[in-house]
Amino acid sequence: MSRTWLVLISTTLALSVFSLVVGVADLSLSQISVTAFKGGEYDFVVNHYRLPRLFLAIGVGAGLGISGALVQGVIRNPLASPDLIGVSAGAGFVATLLLTVFPNAPVWMLPVAAMIGGVSVGLLLIIIARSVQLPPARMALTGIAISAFLASGIDYLLVVHPIEINTAMIWLTGSLWGRGWEQMPYIWMGLAILLPLSLWLAWRLDIVGLGDESAISLGVELDKVQAMALICAVMLASLSVSIAGTISFVGLLAPHLARLLFGHNHKALLTGSAVIGALLVLTADTIARGISPPIELPAGVLTSVIGAPYFIFLLKRYKGW
């Protein structure tokens, strides 16, 4: 177990250093170290462009990974993720509405709008589930229906407002382009608050995994635990989407890979999902910047290239679910 953690952390650190080196201007490690501490010729490239993107990629990936692990723990469906339950679509719809209808809105309003959209869909899902007593596994299907409805709304906005389509598409495909230090407090303050709460819920989610009757007989307040875990998941996913747009499949991939490495214990699963999610987004963002500079691909395109085939594999594996 300790060797696995050592490999993951070492890989993340090595990739972090590499992400500072690669780009339109290829810099050496000595240039980066001098610039980071003393400023100079490459001050803007390192301190105001690559360094904030590095920390944002780690934060966004960790948020999506933890969110996916919580969603799968509550719904008890291995195919569930923030993308599939509609949280990302909700954040995307409200953000697209802002970008197309109010293109001159202040920059700070975009994360706020995305947060409102994601949280609203999450609350709607909880209300529907409680009102009609949906089994946890069927919540995923309800989220897919909500996501499809909101996706059609996004398409409508893009068709009606073609002038703003480029800005909206960059955000919808998932990218850290144009993000900087001003977005840092959103994701890291969210992680500082919601990660400890998620870990507090960990052993309760382990018991919930035994089944509703077993959890209740062991003294777990089932509805309360499920609601708190879903709220944490929705908040983390909304924060991540509000900063980087809809980076797909990270919330699905990270928990599955963490489960292969660390098992089903939620304390290890949540922390493992955070590190693996950070590694996935950091890898995607680094490749997006370095594959063909100065052209920059959206990071969400690269995660989809990996995630879509894996999702098909999971559908085949869990076809009887």
TrEMBL record:
Cell membrane: is it a keyword of this entry?
yes
Q: Which membrane topology describes this protein?
A: Multi-pass membrane protein
Q: Which UniProt keywords apply?
A: Cell membrane, Membrane, Transmembrane, Transmembrane helix, Transport
> Which CDD domains does the protein's record reference?
TM_ABC_iron-siderophores_like
BP term (GO), one: siderophore-iron import into cell
Q: Does the keyword Transmembrane helix apply?
A: yes
> Which Pfam family is one of this chain's hits?
FecCD
Q: Which organism is it from?
A: Vibrio thalassae
Q: What molecular function terms (GO) are annotated for this protein?
A: transmembrane transporter activity
What protein name is recorded for this chain?
Fe(3+) dicitrate transport system permease protein FecD
InterPro entries the UniProt entry points to:
ABC_BtuC-like, ABC_transptr_permease_BtuC
Which positions, given as ranges, span the membrane? Answer: 54-75, 84-102, 108-128, 140-159, 186-205, 225-257, 269-291, 297-315
The protein's superkingdom reads: Bacteria
Family, per entry? Belongs to the binding-protein-dependent transport system permease family. FecCD subfamily.
Where does it mainly reside? membrane
User: Mind telling me which GO cellular component terms the entry cites?
Assistant: plasma membrane
Intracellular or extracellular location(s): Cell membrane
